[in-house]
Amino acid sequence: MTINKIVFIGAGNMSGAIIEGMIASGVSPESIHTTNRSDEKCRYWAEKGLTAHQSNLEALQDAEVVVLGVKPNMMNDLLSEISSAIPKHATVISVAAGVPYNNYRHFLPTQTIARTMPNTPCLVGTGVVGVYYGDQINQATVELVESLFNPIAMVHTCKTEDEIDLVIAAAGSAPAYFFLFIESIINAAQRLGLEPEAAAKMVKQTALGAAQMTVSSTDTPQTLRRNVTSPGGTTHEAVVRFQNDGLEQMTEHAMRDCIARAKEMAAQLTLNK
Ligand SMILES: NC(=O)c1ccc[n+]([C@@H]2O[C@H](COP(=O)([O-])OP(=O)(O)OC[C@H]3O[C@@H](n4cnc5c(N)ncnc54)[C@H](OP(=O)(O)O)[C@@H]3O)[C@@H](O)[C@H]2O)c1
What we know:
Elements: E1 6-9, H1 13-24, E2 32-35, H2 39-47, E3 51-53, H3 56-59, E4 65-68, H4 72-82, E5 91-94, H5 101-107, E6 112-118, E7 127-132, H6 139-149, E8 153-157, H7 162-172, H8 174-191, H9 196-216, H10 221-227, H11 234-244, H12 247-269
Parallel strand pairs: 1-2, 1-4, 2-3, 4-5, 5-6, 7-8
Antiparallel strand pairs: 6-7
This protein binds NADP nicotinamide-adenine-dinucleotide phosphate.
C-alpha cells in the first residue's frame, strides 16, 4: 500500500523508533514528514532525508496518515491545536499510553482513528504493537495500519479498549523489564568478580540467544527452561532461588501496577464534555 504523506507530530523516542524501523524496511524517507517542539530533533530528521517542519499546522497539509507521538499529558492540548488542520479523511494513529479513544473522537469527528500501543523494539524491526480501532473498524483501515507496522512489529488487534492496557503491561512497557533483568545480571556478575566489559558482553549475548530460542523453537519457554535445568545442577539452584524469592508473583504485581497506572492516566485525561 503506497502512502504519499505520513506526518509524525512529536518525533521523540517512540516515533523515532517507528520512523527508523520504517526507513530500514524500505519506506521512502521522502514520504515521511515530522514536526517536533525542539529544533535539534527536527535537524536530526532533516539530515536523514525526512521533511521536518517547524509548524504542526503546515506539516499536516494533505496528510494521509498522521501519527501523534507526544506525551500523554500533552495530547489534549495538541489535539485542540491541530484537529482543524488534519484532513477530514486522514487516518490518525496515536501511540500515547492512557489517552482514551473518545478524546480523539471528540476532536476528530470524521477522521479514522487507531489508538495503538507500540514498543521501542520497532526500532530494530522486532516490535509489538497493539491496535484498538474503536467503533470505526473497517478492512481498509486495518490493512493500512498493518501495512505500516508489519515490517517493524507483530500487530495485535485489540477487541476492547481495556485490552490496550494489557498490551501496555505485556509489551509496551515490557522491554524495560527485560533491560532491568539484563542490568541486574550484569551488575551481579561484576560484583561476583567478572570484568565489567566481559560481563556486559556475555549477558547481552545470552539474552539475545535466549530470546532467539524462545521465538524460533516450537517448545514453550517453560520447556526450554526445564531442558537446561537438570535436577541437582547449578541452573536448578539459581532457578529455585528466583522462584522461592517470588519472581512470578513480583512480575504479576509489577504488571498490575502498570495497568493501574494506565487506568489512572485515562481517568485524569478523559475530557469533561
Ligand atoms: N517510550 C516508549 O517506550 C513508549 C512505548 C509505547 C508508547 N509510548 C508513547 O509514546 C509517546 C511519546 O513517548 P516518548 O517516550 O517517545 O516521549 P519523547 O521522547 O519525549 O517524545 C515526545 C516528543 O514530542 C515532542 N513534542 C512535545 N510537544 C509537541 C508539540 N506540541 N508539537 C510537536 N512536538 C511536540 C517532544 O519534543 P521535545 O524535543 O521538545 O521534547 C518530544 O520529542 C507517549 O505518549 C508514550 O505514552 C512510548
